[in-house]
Amino acid sequence: MEKEKYNSKIGLAKLIKRAIELLCEKNFSEVVVLSSYKISSILNDNFGINIKADKIGRFLSNLAKRNDLKRLNTNIPKYKLHISHLTNLKFF
What whole-number distance in Å separates Cα of residue 62 and Cα of residue 66? Predict the structure, then answer.
């Protein structure tokens, strides 16, 4: 039953939103670099939830398109998020 909750789109969005908030709280600079592996490790370390990085990556890609986040030129997709824009993120 608990696995179904995290497989739903809304449940996944809430978890990813909380992970991004934790990243922003612990960051000292104005910009946070978001990647699926980073979010996956935060979910695993802080909440004990294992979600595949590719599933998080697809969600993160859609989130970046919706919010016009800049993609960094790396092999693994990474996006820049200004901490001041955290409250304006559109998850749906």
Answer: 6
Amino acid at the residue 75: N
Number of domains in the chain: 1
Residue 77 structure tokens = 């997709």
- CA dihedral 50→55→61→64, nearest 10 degrees, is -40
Q: What is the CATH number of the domain that holds 20?
A: 1.10.10.10
pLDDT in tens, 10-63: 788 899 999 999 999 988 899 999 999 999 999 999 989 999 999 999 999 999
Q: Is this prediction's pTM over 0.85?
A: no
> Which residue range forms the structural domain that includes residue 42?
2-88
